[in-house]
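PROTOCOL LOG
Step 1. Enter all chains and additional molecules of the complex.
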Amino acid sequence: MLNMLLSQVLDLMTPVLLAAMAGTLCERAGVFNIALEGKMLVGAFAAVAASIAFGSPMLAVLFAVACTVIFASPLALGGARFGGDPIVIGIGLNLLAAGLTTYLLSALFGVTGTLVDPAVTALPRFGIGALAGLPVLGAIVDGHNLLVYLSWLLVLVLNIYLFRTRWGLRLRGIGEVPSAAAAMGANVNRYQTAIVLLAGALCGLAGAQLALGSVALFAENMTAGRGWIAVVAVMLGRAHPLGIALACFGFGLADAIGLRLQGQGLPNQITDIAPYAITLLAMIGLGLRGAMRKIRNT
Amino acid sequence: MTGVGLETRSRFAAILLSIVVAVVLGGLVVLSTGANPISVYQEIVRGALLGRGLDETLSRSVPLIGMGLAAAIAFRAGLINLGGDGQMLVGGLAAALVALYVPAPGAVRAVLALMAAICAGGLYAWIAAVLQLGLAIPFLITSLLLSYIARGVTSYLVRYPLRDPSTGMPETYRVASAARLPNSIFDLPISVGMLIMAAVAVAVIVNDKHGVNGFEWRMTGLNPRFAGYSGTNLQRQTQRVAFLSGALAGLVGALLILGQQYRFTDGALLAPGYTWSGLMAAVLAMASPIATVVTAAFFAALQVGGFSMERALGLPAVLTWVLQALIILCLAARPVFFKRR
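Step 2. Run joint prediction.
Step 3. Record the structure below.
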């Protein structure tokens, strides 16, 4: 029972985790990226549309990534290159994603609400022998799809990249003191543009996992605030990949417990707000801790 | 919201250019789904301006201008209020409850309902302001998270404790006709909601142009540290601006409930997306209240045209939403040579 719950948590947290890793990269590069929600939605739609067109889950994931990279380009070019306001561009991208996916859903597939099609299949799950052998954890961490494993790998790689490599140091420098990084010879604009596009690719993976991970469908606005929770996760984890992974796990746990309680007959309007309420409470807790520390130091 | 100092004329040119580029891009989207963009745009313009279109545009302008001004007030003072949905819901529900259950004569009940909505919406936004000031949690994030919570809680309330069991829908009882806001005054096609919104718009514009508050808000938006040094109480100001922005959103919720829908139905307040269209109108207007009224009315016309286009051609009206977002994106992400530095 607990094993099943935790295994479900790992599936549910993956879209948020992937989007939060995208947010981490942008945050470290000094671009406030609030378009995660919209990019994830575009990725989810592209993954389902490509599944119907090509019938291959692998191609669907690749197509989702390609679409979100293109979709991220207004932020990459407009925000990082031309000096536009990233918040305004982010709001615009989120609204464009909601409108565009709803429009295309109706105009291309003649569907409003939810698109289910026999050609859309969930990403295959498979076991990794070494993981299954782990005591206790084996049943929890084994038997997920490729994107779930990839998200864990990504957390480790980003952690090493940001804090153990020269390129990561440069990236952090660009985010913290752009003028100093520029004086050192780093091309700030080019770095930021590339990072925002890379973040777009990660959001494409997040969208693909949302649409083809636990379910195999697209629904209007199916991201339902997960991109925003990813933004909060980056803040809670202080842009540190391991801390963010922990925050995302907390979110996944709230989501999974909510789904269970719904099964027990609790109204889903109440269980639906659990992730947002818990996210808000976590922010408040963190804020209180910071405020207390400030008081003690003065 | 930096870069407010752009010269008005170049700003106007940039807006026109953005609209043109957005229309072209939107045309490509239409083309990609196998429809004819020319006839789509013809239908949108015809639907917005001809026949009943103008009346519909006028009535749709009321909530849109309200949400546009709610966003604009906050922008002016450097706050980004993404929680309009939640504030509108809380206000709308407060108005419905007062109009349904407070024992008072009809007109008094309507006035009390409006006041309750203003307080509820304002306080809901004020929570987010206090969290920003006290605990350094960004207003942008909390206002949005609170929206999701308001959506869940109001949805639960009208589905279970407050539900009218005689309808098949998750909604409250109908507000008695005495407590509703009349839809025409002296047989003119002017509703009480329009009058209230016009008064609000005038007040916001006058305060922005001539009021001490308006000046201080604008200063804070441009440079909070300068405003603080020159004597503005930033803490109190942030709370006040957040309250007023949320109050306006709450008022919009009340006007919709008391003037159009007559009961709180789950999802009905948010379905038209007034919060987000209003936000886009305020962005397009660079948070100038007068310009926000104009851009909000423009978006209202665009949306009404979109519905008429949907009826005529069967293409989804949400295309106009795509156009609005494209206009904002073209404006915000335009290459540097269109900008004066």
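Step 4. Note key features.
The mean pLDDT of chain A is 90.
The beta strands of chain A are 114-115, 125-126, 144-145, 218-219.
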